């Protein structure tokens, strides 16, 4: 097995090569958020006040959905403190940016900054990691899912990307609410209740049909866009005992203009090295990582990553393998035998301690 290093180990080596400015907040990122906000409000008004043909309204849905996703990417950045430093301002702006995705800043910072970043791809402690075979064999309710044919499961898991962010966010709320101090809990409640109350009351203002175009369809589109990244960030990588971003994260590549409108969210390995750095500087970080550890670094076009995701099951076996519990077919993970250009399975016994992956 490869020697693993923590993200701070990599960060220490890369930091020396970066300019001081790279560690300063970049408030100018907010102009992008303002643009998305204006586009969203204008589209809402147009749908609400005028009576367009449903196909025209559907075009607005796409525009709003893309804006919701863009605001979510900026919200992620804001709540890492890379846009403004003052906590109250950071949380207020983060709340606005995450308003469409109905996630509150306090919950997000707990779930994402404190749990996902600190325990990335840890079997038990990363709330975003996919389960192991051992874990799902205890979840009786889910077992029938794995009896469905592989392609049917792949189809449904891709279709579920349209709701996964919102659903997972609600799960995180129920999981973590008790961990907040009693004094803070009402704020966490308010931060999730306020967006939902606003969006739901809009039904009575706009009418159901217009609301579907203005909010519901855009929410599904935004979920799909953010999940297209989130699902490829780590799900092809192994679970690891040490939080090594070069082993447990994947950077996807997208056309330059997509990086512009998505605030460089594609640079996920870089983000795990320096979560407190503005993504504006991630191309520079990438250059240094590729110079220092080219054999450890994983990157691939987004389309290829999604295809590999489609072709592999989402259950971990012995941390480094992905297994289809239905047939016992096994696939490697990135860095451990998975070739995204040619995804191949092997049939191996899933009895623990019986495979090479145990090493
Ligand atoms: Zn991540
Ligand atoms: Zn992050």
Automatic annotation (TrEMBL):
CDD domains xrefs: Delta6-FADS-like
Transmembrane spans: 30-50, 56-76, 144-167, 188-205, 211-230
Keywords assigned by UniProt, alphabetized: Membrane, Transmembrane, Transmembrane helix
Cited InterPro entries: FA_desaturase_dom (IPR005804), Fatty_acid_desaturase (IPR012171)
Coiled-coil positions: none
GO molecular function (one): oxidoreductase activity, acting on paired donors, with oxidation of a pair of donors resulting in the reduction of molecular oxygen to two molecules of water
Gene Ontology terms: biological process: lipid biosynthetic process
Superkingdom classification of source: Bacteria
Domain Fatty acid desaturase: start-end pairs: 58-300
Any single Gene Ontology cellular-component annotation: membrane
The protein's name: Fatty acid desaturase
Lineage: Bacteria, Bacillati, Bacillota, Bacilli, Bacillales
